[in-house]
Amino acid sequence: MASGNLPEDVVTEILLMLPVKSLLRCKSICKSWYTLITKPSFTTAQLNCSAALQRNYCILLKRFLQESNKSVMSFLSDEISSDDHFLPTEITIPHSNEFLQMLGPCNGIVCLTDHRDIFLCNPSIRDFKVLPAPSFNYPQGLFSRTMGVGFGFDSHSRDYKVIRIAELHEDDEDWGYKFHSVNVEIYNLTTNSWREIDAIVPCVWFFPCSELLFNGHFHWWADDEDHGGESMLSFHISTEVFQQIRLPDVCAFPDGNERAFLVFNEAIALLLFNPSEQTCFDVWLMTEYGIADSWAKQFTIGPLIQVERPVFFCKHELLMEKANGQLVSYSLKTQRLKELQLYGAQKSLRAVAYSESLVWIK
């Protein structure tokens, strides 16, 4: 397409119809297109256009491949039940291991962490950024251990934030170490630095898929010290305010069950399950966001043979992981299980709803 005789706004409208992969190629066509596509205003317009037209949506799957000792991200069609659900492009994640978490996404950016190293990534454009390690002066004799990591976009300050919940411990002759306190630390992408905030939070716990970004808040599974049970700890990305949302009374730690927070029907779903030869999954929904009394049990999935944990709700299907690390899809309509030819190390599969973007982290 020759654009010499076309107004810039017309060229812009045409380019906004293209997927990100094509836009990256178009940057090499001519200087004017390169300048146009790399403008921040075009990046914002591309995000808004994709959201308005609900296109470029897919499933971003992260898994660890033991045979090659690396973590990769793959794009899947959101029509997971179709035979061509797998889009063959794989993105190798540098310096990764099988314990890597995938948080987000926000505007095409995901946060990856093994609770030691943290980095941001836009897989659409293969952009990675390793975050500097927090370097706070803790009192002598104390050391920190990451218990929870969160990630989100502050729409007011137009900044990306990473939240680190760290337990401080001190050496103890009898027990090896003794709990001291909990620190909350926030990384701002605009300043490329960490800062501490004054907040009192409970201990958070980790299971695969127990950390979730939803509705401008990030969520962790946590203790409920006031009621003696469990809660979902919520952090508002913009106001930086924590809230504890009590989980259903059926949750009594420890009860032998694992927990997962997923998004289902535009609400937070809590899945309770106990991995075994035949696993059942109880699905609870928080019908009113932030209201503990609105938790309601919706249905039970299973028992399913050798299916160990949920991964992601996709339309009327639930992606799940088998004991051997295989990805399977369970249809909520037909109640049938379909094996997909995708494998990863056990407990390494993560998936999020994803939309491509041109947002550069650096």
UniProtKB/TrEMBL annotation:
Protein name, entry field: F-box domain-containing protein
One Pfam family cited in the UniProt record for this chain: FBA_1
InterPro entries: F-box-assoc_dom_typ1, F-box-assoc_interact_dom, F-box-like_dom_sf, F-box_dom, SCF_F-box_component
Chain ranges of the F-box domain: 1-47
Species of the source: Escallonia herrerae
CDD domains with a match to the protein in the record: F-box_AtFBW1-like
